[in-house]
Amino acid sequence: MTAQGPWPIRPFAEVADYGVGKTPARANADYWAKSDQDIPWVSISDLEPFGVVTDTKERASRKAFDDVFRGKLVPAGTLLMSFKLTIGKVATLGIPAAHNEAIISIFPRPGVDQRFLGYFLSQFDYKELQDRQIKGNTLNKSKIDRIPVPVPPETEQSKIADVLDSLRRAVDLQRSVLANLDQLKAAAMQQLFAQGLRAEAQKDTEIGPLPGSWELVTIDKHFSVVSGGTPSRGNASYWLDGTIPWVKTTEVKYAVITETEEHITPAGLDGSAAKLLPPGTLLLAMYGQGVTRGKVGILGIEATCNQACAAMTPKDDDVLPRYLYHYLTSRYEAIRSLAHGGQQQNLNLDIVRTIDVPVPSTADEQQEIADVLDALDRKIDLQRRKRDVLDQLFKSLLYKLMTGEVSVEDLDLSALPTLEGSAA
């Protein structure tokens, strides 16, 4: 957005003073030597949006403090903003620290609420001001000085900041609830897949202790494991007006898959290694250097997939697909570690087929374990949707309050979640 609304507009240089940081010379090892007197040094990666910086990934030495920063640190409570590469990322210092030359420390002048200014700077559209450099976008000093800042009466600034602070607390609370639920699920999976639900005596196995009646089998004993295919992109008849859902590995992310970004035609299915898979098929991502490799999902629709997915369909009723889904979820890191190859570490069908799976002796126990974890997934999904709604509300109100499109007096935020309400 550009600065607009019912309030006077003033250039940034008139509403705040600011200082640009420095990076001690990397070639001087003395500036980065570790000691009990080194100092926090903030880079853009340390700026959690709207957060408080209490720790940094790097610290500069006492010598750098004396030589480069002239014995002065930016005080705790100071507003920081990035103005290179990622422009407009704001956070507040929670500790005295130094920062690099891609960040400014901001000191609002009398009559300017620091929180209001930070929220404004975070959502301002810098496209008309920024310069394009080889390493990314940046602002120079003259353009920082010219940022047009709306300046309501200070009492109005504070009211707007209070509303946005309340929304941020609600979003942060929801994220905390989600993190706690994720930890609860991880602990539940660890216990359920090691001890079961029948309080049985345990036996030692290749993957650790298991209930004595459980069997350790490979996936291919009870599941057919195949990969998919990608129809030629050069043949329009394989893709144009396609109706068959086609799953990519980026869509395999611990959920029931009910829609896909791309679709292929029946001709594309016939003209490639792609296979039509029934609902309930498990998919495991075999490729991906990032977090994708090793993730699993379940088809909620008839679909096909690319060659980077392993598709698992049951040969019999001995192992419930939902049970296997949860077990593979619990083994994400272990499965990822099975990948091999050169620079691109991947899984393959042979590896997936021979993954060991602990199987309870009865389908009832499998179902009960799956039911427990399904219930946790439903709770996590509900809290995730609450978080997304709150996050979207924050972004919408941030824009509308800053433009004067919505007045604080028009709002009723009494329904924002409390700690008790979010955990329900």
Written account of the structure:
The chain is an alpha+beta fold and 424 residues long. The longest helix has 42 residues, at 154-195. The chain has 12 helices and 24 strands. Helices cover 34% and strands 20% of the residues. The strands form 8 sheets. Strands 2-9-6-7-4 form a 5-stranded mixed β-sheet. Strands 16-23-20-21-18 form a 5-stranded mixed β-sheet. It has a 3-stranded mixed β-sheet with strand order 5-3-8. Helix 3 packs across helix 5 (154-195). It has helices spanning 12-15, 62-67, 114-123, 141-146, 154-195, 219-222, 266-270, 321-330, 332-336, 349-353, 363-403, 419-423; strands at 9-11, 16-20, 39-42, 52-53, 58-60, 79-82, 90-93, 98-99, 103-108, 131-133, 136-138, 148-150, 202-203, 210-211, 215-218, 223-227, 244-247, 256-257, 262-264, 282-285, 296-299, 304-305, 309-314, 356-359.
